[in-house]
Amino acid sequence: MKISRRSFTLLAAAAAGTVSMPGPLLAEAAGQRIVSLDYGLASTLLSLGVQPVGISELADWNKWVVEPHLPSSVVDLGSSYEVDLEILIQLKPDIILTTPYLDELLPRLRPIAKVLRLEVFTPDGGPVLEAATAATRTLATGIGREQQADQFLRRSDVFFEGCRERLAGKAIPPVALVTFMDARHARIYSAPGLFHNALERIGVRNAWTRQSNFWGFETIGIEELSSIGDPDARLIAFDPVPPGVLSKLAESALWQMLPFSRPGQLSVVPPALMFGMVNEAMRFAGLVTNVLDQDA
Amino acid sequence: MIALRHDNLGPGLVVFLLLCGGCVASWFLIQPTLWGTVEPGYDIERMVLYYSTLPRLATALLAGAALALSGALFQQVLRNPLADPTTLGVSAGANLALVVVSLFMPGLLGAGRDLVALLGSAAAAAIVVGFGARRGFSPYSLVLSGLVVSLWCGGLSAILTYLNQRYLASLFIWGAGSLAQQSWVIPLSLAWKIAGVAIVCALVIRPLSLLDLGESSSSSLGVKLARLRILVVGCAVTLAAFVTSAVGVIGFIGLVAPTLARLSGARRPVQMIVWSPLIGAALLFLTDSVLQLLAGGLGDFLPTGAVTAIFGSPLLLALLPWLKVRHRIQQAVVRQRQRRWSTRVPATVALAGMLVIVALSLFVGRGPGGGWTVLSGEFLHDILAIRAPKVFAALGSGAMLGVAGSILQRLTGNEMASPEVLGISAGATFGVAIALFAVAPGFAGQFAFAVTGAIMVLAVILLSSRRSNFAPERVLLAGIALSAMVDAVVGVLSSTGDPRAVLLMRWMSGSTYLVDGTTASVEVAIGAVLIALALAARRWLDILPLGAAPSSAVGIPLACSRLALFGLAGLMTAAATLTVGPLSFVGLMGPHLAREAGLTRALPQMVGAALIGGGLMVLADLIGRTAVAPYQIPAGLVSALIGAPFLMILLSRRQ
Questions:
Q1: Does B103 reside within a domain?
Q2: What is the spatial distance between Cα A145 and Cα B264, in angstroms, rounded to a whole number?
């Protein structure tokens, strides 16, 4: 397919057409063509009522982010680390959203469009959820959507509060949050990460008390889960769980001795992005609340 | 009976000391639990001891024994003190097979895991040993090709993993050899598998020890040589495959243990084969228990296999002077058929091909919808500004790698020699690793670190081989040992799952993505100067392959010319690595294709290699950019993927 100017205008028109569908907040967005090189920023953008023209790694959106749903008109820009610059140029963006993580791309991006660089995960950034909230406001200022940001953050507060209330007064055990890597290793999430902050926000204790790196995870052998003292602690594992892991664990004598192997102590929940922003924290909180609420 | 002989004292003492060390370390590990009060009911610490700590120690003992036995068998049957599952590429072959299967056919892994590993390592062993057989099992050729296969498999599995599942670093962990256990399943199954192979070994010990008498004497004593070799190599490969399939790649134990056995006094084959596994078991036991103590203290995740490689590869360096090196006069390939064309024809074809590829690469691409487009109109200027630097940087690097490869193959008389094995690329990678993890500078800083790393490695290699007058064998093996160490360090970094490791992997995968106009013009300029220098040295390159004595006889200063040529090849490799990554194998393919086309003398071969190498690299870049657009496959990876089958065809044709 040859991309001519005309087919581009059509594409843009199509994009603008779908923009008006999802919600009431999308009026003057059509003027700005924004691309995002980060999942968290892309989902925040949607919540501010702006539809990105293109995002990086669109192909894996449903594997890691899932919510909010992404309209089909969004163009895939390829991997974040190696955004397809040729396609990016042809999209003619006005604003490019990026993170410190992609700084080496800056010299290539700046000639193409105005670059908004937002920091969420930084070595001295502190709690990730706070940083994400701050970044949401910065982003809103950058694209002139402060009002929508206020509304979105208020919605998220209400949502977290709702989760907290659903769980309040119930006997909620501490939870450990993992992604299984294979039958012997897992990634476990703790302070100062996004998941940990969201847990605090909805009043659930994290069973894994050790601090981790600034992305909020560390890699452990499964046997280290035994250092969790509370016998009532719950283990929540996020999809995707590699094939064969759960059956292999079931055969392991050590695993059988861990409290998590008892029926109802381990839940596998749909994917949630650990390197995300406010939306991802909300999705995470919703998933965890559902699991805990059902069993409490 | 064996234990009574006094020459068994040394190895016995080594085993005893290592075991003592291991026991002390593991005592510190388990002592708090044992002395703790026994709680009724839920006593998780004791469970961890029974089902994690103890199985892990048992696995360490078993894996150590198996790898050491495998190494000892390889060394005995190939009569090569440097052979082991790591240096022969056997472990890496198993690893690559498992990575490929778990990425693309995960269903196979449940039941057929051992089988997959076995197939992978058997393929690697067949390539390496098959190649060695054609060269009369020359120790140095064998290890050289083994390490090339090892590098290739290791690099490819890391890159495949990186491209496919960024957030799941499980394959890294496993590739780096983690011994963590949660049950007795793995050590128990490993135990009976190893026992089975060990019994077979016990049956062939006698004929195997007769091998020391030399080929003719042993065959006159009734030893069926070929069959024995195949059987023993089969045993060794199987052992390595079982261990790799169970716990991943554990580097260099199979080299270190037999070496320790030999150093402590074991001489006869029976002694080597009995003592090596014992030493190997004790050694891995000690390493792993110390590592567990340290890891417990640091709270870090350290894969044992990568750590053994970090300590094992310097040993390989230290062992190099022990290796008997004979300079082999390059077998001139006698061409039976009449050459139908002069050197001008293939050179012209190569030039034309390269020009066509460059033109295609500049003007063909994919649009936002995924359709193929020929560049024109509105975006012509902007997009050319992105593409042209990539294309010309790829061209320059490919040409330099081709010429560097020609120089190395001529200097060493070894058709497996390629710039990858000089270790310079590894040095550059290491520089970037330090930059990313310790200093965290911008992109320009990374570049500086890469150059520094490459130059340091080149200096170390040249210094360490100065005593041997830069004998090519020494230089290459030193380079490979350094590469193995750097690989291991990178493995440790990647398996922590730190997202910065992804940046490192991208560097290693050889992407031209970040090349801009300035970099490209610098690259092309450097390339032009260095290639011109290489062409000027054509007389040396025509004469040096004839051997040391003839070369000095016609007045070539040996040390001087070798230093200059290695330095030149090193600089070219370093410059190329900075844009196309440490692993491309263009430096292997270019010179070969040139020679196959009939360009046999130094000057035409280098010109041909430069044209073909440059063309291949640009083609690889074009394929990588468009095949799965908008996602990009790094040019280095594409060319390495082309390089592998090429290597096999090459080896099968040289009868």
A1: yes
A2: 75
pTM exceeds 0.80 for this model: no
Inter-chain touch B374–A90, beta carbons under 8 Å: no
Residues B307 and B385 in one domain: no
- Length in residues, chain B: 655
Closest CA to B624 of B499, B545, B465, B506: B506
- CATH annotation of A5-118: 3.40.50.1980
B626 shares a domain with B578? yes
What's the CA gap between A251 and A266, in Å, rounded?
15
Separation in Å, CA A280 to CA A41, A71, A172, A186, A273:
10, 18, 22, 21, 6
Residues 6+ apart with CB under 8 A from B488: B176, B251, B306, B307, B309, B310, B313
Q: Could you tell me where the DSSP H helices lie in B7-108? A: 9-35, 44-48, 54-78, 90-104
pLDDT digits 0-9 by tens, B434-463: 777 776 655 566 667 777 787 787 777 777
From chain B, the residues in CB contact with A182 under 8 A are 170, 173-174
- Do residue B442 and residue A104 have CB atoms under 8 angstroms apart? yes
Mutate to test the interface with B, among A108, A185, A212 (most CBs of B within 10 A): A185
Q: How far apart are CA B650 and CA B655, in angstroms?
A: 10
- B399/B585: higher pLDDT: B399
In a domain, B152, yes or no: yes
Range of the domain at B168: 49-319
Quick check: A32 contacting B, CB < 8 Å? no
CATH-assigned architecture of domain A171-295: 3-Layer(aba) Sandwich (3.40)
Element (H, E) at A61: helix A61-64
| C-alpha A86 chain-centroid distance | 27
pLDDT tens digits, B333-349? 444 444 556 777 888 88
Mention every residue, 6+ apart, whose C-beta is less than 8 A from residue A78. A56, A57, A84, A87, B629, B630, B631, B632
The ipTM assigned to this model is 0.71
Find out whether B574 and B627 touch, Cβ atoms under 8 Å.
Answer: no
Do B616 and B520 belong to one domain? yes
Nearest Cα neighbor of B416 from B160, B601, B150 is: B150
Total number of domains in chain B? 2
- Quick: pLDDT tens for B532-578: 999 888 888 888 877 778 888 887 787 788 888 888 888 888 888 77
For chain A, say whether B502 makes contact (Cβ under 8 Å). Answer: yes
CA distance A244 to B106: 9
Spatial CA neighbour of B387 closest among B191, B178, B642, B624: B624
B195 and B72 in a common domain? yes
- What's the pLDDT tens digit per position in B591-616? 888 888 888 788 888 999 999 999 99
Q: How many CB atoms lie within 10 A of CB B601?
A: 12
**Position B368 in a domain:** yes
Whose structure tokens read 């076995």?
Answer: B118
Question: 3-state DSSP call for residue B112?
Answer: helix
Give A189's DSSP letter. Answer: E
